[in-house]
Amino acid sequence: EDQVTQSPEALRLQEGESSSLNCSYTVSGLRGLFWYRQDPGKGPEFLFTLYSAGEEKEKERLKATLTKKESFLHITAPKPEDSATYLCAVQAVGSSGGSNYKLTFGKGTLLTVNP
Amino acid sequence: DVKVTQSSRYLVKRTGEKVFLECVQDMDHENMFWYRQDPGLGLRLIYFSYDVKMKEKGDIPEGYSVSREKKERFSLILESASTNQTSMYLCASSLRRGAQYFGPGTRLLVL
User: Fold this and answer.
1) What secondary structure letter does DSSP report for A81?
2) Is B97's CB within 8 Å of A91's CB?
3) Which of A17, A94, B5, B106 is in the most buried spot, having the most CB atoms within 10 Å?
């Protein structure tokens, strides 16, 4: 069974204080790893897809990296507007048609950036 | 830009009512998904569809059914609503194996 564990559950930073969020995964064969941002009361917003170990993606103050066992979301000089829950999900190589398209989500990291 | 819309942002229903949640996507995506999200439990997959009229159970299908008569529309049906179905319901769509794009969610309260 595919599993995704995110840590920490919650993280409080001061504005400008860089840090990283962790996503550890167990999957039989990784097809892709996805990062999402979710604001309170809204649907998750897609950020990045990573496909292979060593790959990196960047968007503004966010950079996502991938190894064979985990992914990190690095936040550089965060601002209060970066406050949100960040979700990680994996897509496994499936044995049958429909199972190829499913994502397994972690429970997320609630990031709060204080001004 | 991908747009996924859900028919209601907030919904209040009575126990035993039949409830329909509608989702529409405008990007010609093959796959559509229904999740529920509860505090401490994260996102849980209820049902998904990888082609018109094709559907597959997710992790928690009990008490739910779905319908996909057209490619752009995916409906979630609560056959007889119960209080433990009070939750945030999220619809998503994707191209084959790509990222899923989510709608704004429907917060359902069953009294």
Assistant:
1) G
2) yes
3) B106
* pLDDT for the residue numbered A46: 97
Distance CA B67, CA A8 (A): 38
Q: In this structure, how many other beta carbons lie within 10 angstroms of the beta carbon of residue A71?
A: 24
B1–A contact, CB cutoff 8 A? no
Dihedral over alpha carbons B65, B71, B73, B78 (to 10 degrees): 0
Residues in chain B with pLDDT values less than 50: none
CA A70 → CA A23, A24, B51, distances in Å? Answer: 5, 4, 32
For B22-52, the pLDDT digits (tens) are: 999 999 999 999 999 999 899 999 999 998 8
Reading the block at residue A6, the tokens are 């995110």
B48–A102 CB contact, under 8 Å? yes
Torsion, CA A29, CA B59, CA B90, CA A108, rounded to 10 = -60
- Our CA-based measurement puts residue A107 at a distance from the nearest CA of chain B, in whole angstroms, of 5
Residue A97: pLDDT over 80 = no
Q: For the ranges A75-84, A93-102, B4-13, B45-54, which has the lowest average pLDDT?
A: A93-102
Nearest CA in chain B to A50: B99
- Measured at the CA of A27, the angle between CA B96 and CA A92, to 5 degrees, comes to 10
Closest CA relative to residue B60, chosen from B23, B26, B35: B35
pLDDT category at A101 given cuts 50, 70, 90 is confident
With CB atoms and an 8 Å threshold, state whether B4 touches A100. Answer: no
